[in-house]
Please model this.
Amino acid sequence: MNIPADLKYSETHEWVRLEGAQARVGITDHAQAELTDVVYVELPKIGAKVQAKAPAAVVESVKAAGDIYSPVTGTVVAVNGALENNPALVNTDPHGEGWIFVVALDAPEEVAQLKDAAQYQALIGE
Model:
């Protein structure tokens, strides 16, 4: 299981990559493996306000549909339009090309409350 050390993780299996005052968000390798083949991603709208621990997007797979929770509070400033034509990027490159949205942070201190790679590894039992 790939758990990059440069990311922060939520208990609901989303990751955050800090990019200045913004946070790029996606789902973890563990989450995509549990979902299996992703067939559709419902992206949030640019300009949408998201709250930490509240649903912000939806991922549908051949097995299930699941909410994607924003790990941080802020405003959506970018979405990964590539997922509209190729939702499988969530499976093939969950920590890279399979990112879902970018949030301009309202409360940067929330990032410190997320798990580091070792804590996330302990959470999923790897």
Observations:
- The helical segments are 29-35, 82-85, 89-92, 117-124.
- Residues 72 and 110 are 6 Å apart (CA to CA).
- The first helix runs from residue 29 to 35.
